[in-house]
Amino acid sequence: MTQTLESRLVAMLEVVYPSLDCEFLADQLLAAMGLQPDVEALSPEQQRWSESDVALITYADTVQCPDEKPLETLKRFLDGYLKDVVTAVHILPFFPYSSDDGFAVMDYQAVNESHGCWGDVEAIAGDYKLMADLVINHMSVRSRWFENFRKRVGPGKDYFVEGNPKDDLSQVVRPRTSPLLNPVQTDDGVRYVWCTFSEDQADLNFANPEVLIEFAGIIRNYLERGVIIFRLDAVAFLWKEPGTPCIHLQQTHELIKILRLLIEHHTTDAVVITETNVPNRENLTYFGNANEAHAIYNFSLPPLLINTLVTGNCRHLKTWLMSMPPAQLGTTYLNFIASHDGIGLRPTDGLLEEEEKQRLINTLESFGGRVSYRRTADGRNQPYELNIALWDALKGTAEGGADHRQLQRFLCAHTVMLALEGIPAFYIHSVLATGNDYERVEHTGRLRSINRGQCQLDELEAILADPLSHESKVYRELRRLIDIRRAQPAFHPNATQFTLHLGLKLFGFWRQSQYREQSIFCIHNISADVQQVSLSEINLIGTDHWTDLLSGQPIDDLSGAITLKPYECVWLSNC
Q1: What fold does the segment set 55-134+207-214+229-247+268-313+330-471 form as a domain?
Q2: With 90 as the cut, is the pLDDT of residue 77 above it?
């Protein structure tokens, strides 16, 4: 029996709000989104991506130019350097904010005046698939809603989660070491506000359906401004119930389904991506039954790939890859190895032993990295993430320290990422191969600032124009790799993938296109030693003509071997 949009929405709402009139609530949500209730509910099978899709992650003001708003400068940089390279641009929070480089939002409906205006955002959306953050778990305590919370008036009076210091909150999973509850003086006395991330970021109360309705209106505005991809920030923590871990609760999963349903019925090719920096098994649950996130961040990839390259051993990376299920129809992975945040350590739970994690921490600290911590249930501070620029994270090995193969190691990491099942996403500081920014850490007092530097466009252009600079070498080679990737059907985000068994120094996998017209064997020497690959081991079909896409060299003798220099890679294709 065909379901209408309204009937499907009501069924989801009844799970979250069983005591409310969910038909009335559904009507309010549909009105906020400008949707008709009696339309037929969409099938989840629409294809939203291809092998040509590549994303860039950047702050609005990473690239700057005097006397020009940063969003205008960003558009000029994109058009001048990445126009034919990336298809999607994730602009990290560009709203007015009070802290956390944009993630303590003061006004969801406005653009930070120091960055530009909605017209600048729409100009980028006109040429690229625009990805924006829905900072949905929390809001700035300097926002109008929170001021109304203090005054005990609406909108805002009941928009934030309150707690009782006497409640048993020992099970609550914490991503930080700061206090969970913060006392706030209001017009009717002290109230304790739930703050998962910092005392400046008060958690929003989705047990109050008015908050959900507010966000429906915010989402509609973003869609009408050209946002096509929604990153649900810190969404795993959305629903709170004392006496539980307050992470991954069923209400959270249902709310994601609701948001996806509303978003894709407003704009059929829109995409919802969940940002859940948690252990791998927990992360995978956000696919649901292909009815939650269209894509999930592949959070285990950055620490495992970096660990592989600094140890010269791919055992854990290979084991993880073999365990990863193919994404269901209509879903995919978002692959990245660097972002505005640090390199998460929780996604290695169950994948790396504690002593291996500590060795990785020690290695990256020797390369200038820093460590951020979280508070565990028993009150201990545990390493949560490594704060370091990817360029510096790969400057050497665990055994030998810094060496002269930093460039090769860095490019090898991105070659692996580009070939994996999913959509590749590049952080701007990886495209530019920038190093640790200690001055910014000193200036802000925040460890994450080590990888959030800003640069002047004219200085950047001069560096990229210098063929001897490592930044220019990285930029030009990444462009070349991306160009090759985008032309291969076997690199479709949902193309078949199988792990190859080539020992511990060679990391390999096989990709095959949907209609089997193309196979690519992706083999990467992840060690500092020369390695040989016996072609008979990987069973290349003798009647096909094979070529290494990266070098352009044909493979004439299928009974022979390929020699790979340290960190060298091949993509062996039959067409």
Answers
A1: TIM Barrel (3.20.20)
A2: yes
